[in-house]
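re: that complex we talked abt at group meeting.

here r the seqs, copy pasted straight from the sheet so there may be weird spacing, ignore it
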Amino acid sequence: MEIPYIFTPRKDTGLVNSKIAIWLFLASEVMLFGGFFSAYIFLRLGADYPWPERTLPVLPGLINTFVLIGSSVTVIFAWMSLKLRKWHQFQFFMAITVVCAGVFMVLKGIEYNVKFHHQALRLKDYAVVEGHLGYELKDGVHVAHGEEPKDEDFALNHHGKKIEENMINFETSELSFNTVRYHHDWVEEIIAHAAERNAAITLKEDLKLGKEAPVLFDKDGNAAPGSKPLAMADGFAKGSVLSMKLLERITELHLEARSHNAELRTDAFREEWKKAHAQYPGKSDRQLAPDVKIDVTKLDLKVEHPSIGFEVQPATVFHFRPRDIQEGPASGTLRDGTALAGKMEESPMGFHYVDALDFRHLAMKVEEKVGDNPEAVEKAIEESWLIKSNHELKEIWEKQQKALGLLTAELAKKDRVPTEKDKYRVNWQEMVYYATTRLEDIKIEAGKYQMPHVKMELDEEFFGPNYAVRAKAQRPDGHLGSFPHLSVPRAEVQFASKFAPAWNTYYAIYFTMTGLHGLHVIGGALVLGYYLFCGKKMYLSNPEWLANRVEVGGLFWHFVDLVWIFLFPILYLM
Amino acid sequence: MADSPEAIKKATRLYLLIGAVLFGGTVLTVLVATVPSLDFGKHGFDTADLLIGLLIATVKATLVAAIFMHLNHEKRLIYWLFGLGIGAAICLLFLTGLAIWDPIHYNGFPTGVPGSEPVRHFK
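got the structure back, here u go
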């Protein structure tokens, strides 16, 4: 079938059909992004926490803006080349456009990756601390300040990955798995961890799911010679060692039993309903329902085991991510329904590098209570857990206060005052400066109206602070390191998250909008790439056809650029 | 629209010029936001910076739409389609704005809603 008006305009509209189609699509895109921009405005106006202004790295955002604008120009040139029937020139400009899309996505990927590895923590007193967590060392030892352990010193999970120092340590003597909901990966981790600690996890009591005598199974799912193999067994003796094979077999039998029993019960009910209808033909189902009953004791039901109890000998400390466990004084429950008997051990959150302090939320809370009272805020900060418990952070705060005094005096000459960020936030560049400068040497640069800070290296503009290099900086007290070490007791933690959508509504809308925009970049690049690599046939058949297609693809590409023109300032600069 | 080869050749300089203006506008946006001596209004980010940033972005977006997307000389149907999209987006903004009257979520936001204290937003 021939599609009409693909390179000659319709008389009534004066346009080729594809152009009308793309504009219809762009109109729907305007509504889509318009909705998100509306959401951004209202999230920002209604935020019940200090909105993170100018928090994203500007340089990658700026380069990405240049890249998109540049690609908007090259896509136009690609279209112009087709109009002038210059195929190779078209290829050249279109290739640049597609490469630009790739550069944009790589930079975006780096930006996302940095965010997903950067930890934020809000304490119970609303002080916020940011940085990088340490990793658990073998045998539960924590990394001490100034130590840079070797790779072989770190504890690894069963995937061979390091474990962040943000785990709930739970001493467990008994475990009970939900037969159908247990999470495969967590059980494997429990088994591996127990094996590492020489602990045995064994069935607490005989488990019979059929008529056979219980069989004892070892950690590999093997039984004594002459006994039924695991795949055939339907009884499991007390003392059988926990293995995935054992759990899977129990689940299989349990599900079989459940389905068998459900069938029997349904059949029995069906029979009873038939009888009831025959006995009382005039009555409705609603009237009959209370008297339609079955006697389950008369049915040949199989045994179901919705949960399977194991004991842990000796009691062992297992590590769980905070979001996976709900812990009580003598028990805990994992998200997959696994019940743990035991008690929570000390489970501090260990920052190997603290790279920012933020008291803006704390100040906001104080001001909500007592009104605009700087002394009350200052006192609340001095009494905050962070400043009271960590002498390094206290020193940094003292230096920040001195620098703030200098900045306030400098700004007063121009009838200006410091911002909330100046007053209550120490970012990583400022932290490095304070850590490596004596109190008496703190000064601000005249005419810059900025808090003192160290210069960012080029790689740090993209990847954040270079911890390995900064950790070697000489401090006035003779020690090395620019970033304080911090161990936060679990009781002080209010909310912790990476800089991911969960952290606050700013990051939620940032990831939503830039993610959606990124998908558009990928989609646009695929279409333009198709014209670049597969457009020759279309060009040879009718160059105007391809020119129209490229114009339509280019319109979409300009729209993607147009959206970014707003996204960049509102997310990176405001 | 520049459709004939001659017109297209003529338009080259215009496209390059618009590209340069867009680059320049971007640099200006960043300078205004990051260089203290170019900081308008109060020290740090404030309404003046917001308005300047949005103004530059709007000018840039208008140039992209008008020149690169050829909206400066398009057929009437296209104006209708795009205009309807923008109109609907603005309606959406005001529909979302109705949340102001949700007393649980926006207690007192913004000031002027009868019978409620304004939420203290950060200065």
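couple things i noticed - Chain A has 17 helices and 14 strands. The mean pLDDT of chain A is 93.
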